[in-house]
Specification:
Number of strands: 14
Helix content: 25-40%
CATH class of the largest domain: Alpha Beta
Number of helices: 10
Mean pLDDT: 97
Radius of gyration: 19 Å
Structural class: alpha/beta
Low-confidence stretches: none
Shape: globular
Bound molecules: NADP nicotinamide-adenine-dinucleotide phosphate
Number of domains: 2
CATH topology of the largest domain: Dihydrodipicolinate Reductase, domain 2
Largest sheet: 8 strands, mixed
Length: 329
Amino acid sequence: MTLSPIRWGILGTGSIAKQFARGLTSDPGSTLVAVGSRSAESAAAFASEYPCTAHASYAALCADARVDAVYVASPHTGHHEHAMQVIGQRKALLLEKPFCVNARESAEVIAAARQAGVFCMEAMWTRCLPANRQAAAWLTAKAIGDVRLVTADFGFRCGWDPTSRLLDPKLAGGGLLDVGVYTMALAWLAMGGVAPTTIKATAALGATGVDEQAAMTLSWASGAMAQLTCAVRLNTKHDAVIYGTEGRIELPNFWHGTTAILHQDGQSSQTLELPFIGNGYTHEAIEVGRCLRAGLKESPLISLDETLAISRGLDECRRQVGLRYPNER
Ligand SMILES: NC(=O)c1ccc[n+]([C@@H]2O[C@H](COP(=O)([O-])OP(=O)(O)OC[C@H]3O[C@@H](n4cnc5c(N)ncnc54)[C@H](OP(=O)(O)O)[C@@H]3O)[C@@H](O)[C@H]2O)c1
């Protein structure tokens, strides 16, 4: 496998697939070589906007010998099947969030990737952003003492289209899987990757039956807790704060953040403006390239064990609020 530059294939031609293609252009260590779509027309239209080879099926994309790594950008409900196709062709895999619809599917994909010995990572792009990584560095250095409380919200108001992937239960719609997953990942980051011992969730299920907004309280054995909220029919601030015994870390607009603020008790606060290369998605492509060149099978920025634990956490939230998707295995 030629590792420099990483030759990317993109599976799917929707909105985030286009964002990722744009993001790749800001990473000299990446090049887009192919796209795969369920239709020849969509593949050709994508390839005319983002020059690359157009494949009229996902299978053809995954079989393309020039592709080193595939970014899977299908709706949540396609992640398991499409990830398995990528792994089956022994390509590196960057799989959009949420990794899979439920923990059972996530565990199968992770086991398959590990068995095949291929790189696999959830496209939790926030973890790759320098602002989040600065927060992680402060936490490791115990800059705020012991973490006791995390608050994070991620809500946006989508238009009312019951057939959209955000609202349609057949496409695993709802806030928990679409954006609650980011708040969960932030809480896990704050707690050093340790899973909570208790999760309590409540949600407002809308007319299509999916959670339009939800609140989660997570607790750890140490007494630390996280208060997380998410929504797909309500604009919220997207702020995250990690409170410790000796101060706090603020990540304004943490989903898209460029700023990390450290308040240490009794000292003046420190505000860092951090890089945001390209459209931000560039950072996850850079991280995949770094891992592949280092021979890693997963990224230390978001381990597969953490991805699986977060997937279990989301399952538990949906169980408590009574949200099960049709045809869910
Ligand atoms: N990281 C982020 O910031 C971010 C932001 C938005 C979304 N996402 C994630 O990215 C994934 C895709 O989201 P999106 O907003 O890009 O969705 P989208 O615009 O609806 O595009 C999804 C694409 O998946 C393909 N697809 C395969 N099976 C499909 C099906 N049954 N129904 C519809 N499309 C299907 C289609 O491509 P073809 O027709 O070409 O096959 C479609 O264009 C989701 O899992 C979402 O959570 C991440």
